[in-house]
């Protein structure tokens, strides 16, 4: 029975006779590589800001926004969007597809978007929807809408507490009446009623879009919507 | 042990590929009132520096897998050991950060993200044990 080889001998044989130390990284090399890796990840997290940036505005100048409607009343295609301010998929839609939709169709007067509340994910959904109505009193529904969707960070964890919603309003330049409105709960019933209307229409998930009569569930991409919108626009 | 690293990194790449597909397809981009993946995948933390986090994971695991395959050959170059060690450290730190975001910022956990995090931690553990103990070839030689 041949004598058992030491680890160093086995290593040398495995590497075709080359000296084992030359074929393996040294402890110093591994330490340097580890430090570089740690620094690179920390720098990446710091530079990327820990997430996608908060958009300042998603609407090009000249696009008409009134109350819950983005776009012209004469637009041939209407998209009714049922959404919850806490819903991450609605956030994805608001931050990605909606700005593209606005630039591509709404700005040309071909589409108008109507926002509807389906506040079903908890109390902070309800409060955020009520606060959006308060912002609407001062003509800033859509500014508030954009800012709230850009600020999502978990559901029912205090992100959209009434105090935080008031801070968002303050950052948008909404006056003291906004804070009073948020505290008053004066739009609570309206939001609840609209949510019931949505549920009555068969909306079970958010975002749900109705492009004219066609129902689409989920954060549709621009390409998915184009396939529906283009024939409708061409048919007019 | 090197084969195990290759297999685990391939699993990590597959999980990341699935999450990347979910991101770009818009599937699961729907709120039905429950579910951790919709919260995590739909959050603003799902994109870093303009690139979906899932795609970053796919790139990282693909690189680790490529290095793991190189290290399966006889007499692999030392740089492959150094690179896989550095990459697995970077991957583990980054997924740890993302797991922290899931638990303490979003309050939601996506099982697929947890699977990717476990893969990176396992790869780091195996590579570290192998390199630091220098026993990578023991299993194959008498």
CATH class of chain B: Mainly Alpha
Shape of chain A, please?
globular
Low-confidence stretches of chain B: 135-142
Helix content of chain A: 40-55%
Whole-number total of structural domains of chain B = 1
Order of helices and strands of chain A: HHHEEEHEHHHHHEEH
Structural class given helices, strands, pairing of chain A?
Answer: alpha+beta
Assign the CATH class of the largest domain in chain A: Alpha Beta
CATH architecture of chain B: Up-down Bundle
User: What topology, given as strand order, has the largest sheet of chain A?
Assistant: 1-2-4-3-5-6
Q: What is the rounded distance between the termini of chain A?
A: 91 Å
Tell me the distance between the termini of chain B.
Answer: 16 Å
Instruction: Give the CATH superfamily of the largest domain in chain A.
Output: Glutaredoxin
Largest interface: A-B, 59 and 50 residues
The SSE string of chain B, one letter per element, is HHEEHHH
Helix percent of chain B reads over 70%
Largest beta sheet: strand ordering of chain B: 1-2
